[in-house]
Inverse folding.
């Protein structure tokens, strides 16, 4: 069953918590962040199945709203987390769990999603799904542990002008042979929702 952990004992997701009556919660101490302020850590463990991604989407949007992110930034982060999970589920070991950690500090949300993989290979960076991630998040990376656990990490900053974010993403993708037009967040979101393989409310490539 889904489980959650919250920092500062603040009760999980704002506005009532993750919508699962069976979810259990626990408190963890907060850590200081450079320059002052506290960092809240929220952890969710869900079965590695697409049916549970709606819980994660709701948690992502709620936590971003708590951090005073704009509506556009909240939607960008929700889609990015959705895509990260879809990539991991493609190679998730049967019966494994999807572990998601949110680190909230002033003006920044960092998200790490981990699953036990069958092949122990990192996700391909030459896919539309990865392009979505790099267009909608400020920083994206992946790693694989020695026990074949694959992790995708996202970082989203509040208040970064969209033009600057697009410019940075364009430069990266141009160096890797991508067209600048595919890096525009609005174009990405339009392609994401119209993609023939994606449901209107789910990720590309989701089972």
């Amino acid at each position: 069953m889904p489980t959650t952990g919250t920092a500062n004992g603040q009760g999980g997701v704002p506005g009532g918590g993750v919508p699962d009556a069976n979810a259990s919660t626990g408190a963890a101490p907060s850590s200081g962040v450079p320059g002052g302020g506290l960092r809240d850590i929220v952890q969710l463990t869900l079965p590695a199945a697409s049916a549970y991604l709606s819980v994660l989407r709701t948690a992502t949007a709620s936590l971003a709203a708590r951090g005073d992110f704009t509506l556009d930034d909240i939607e960008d982060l929700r889609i990015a987390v959705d895509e990260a999970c879809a990539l991991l589920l493609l190679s998730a070991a049967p019966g494994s769990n999807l572990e998601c950690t949110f680190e909230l500090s002033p003006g920044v949300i960092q998200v790490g999603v981990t699953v036990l993989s069958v092949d122990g290979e990192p996700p391909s960076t030459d896919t539309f799904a990865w392009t979505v991630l790099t267009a909608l998040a400020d920083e994206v990376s992946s790693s694989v542990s020695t026990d074949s656990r694959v992790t995708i990490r996202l970082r989203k900053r509040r208040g970064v002008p969209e033009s600057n974010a697009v410019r940075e993403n364009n430069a990266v993708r141009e160096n890797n042979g991508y067209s600048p037009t595919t890096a525009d967040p609005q174009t990405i979101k339009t392609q994401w929702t119209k993609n023939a393989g994606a449901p209107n409310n789910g990720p590309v490539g989701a089972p």
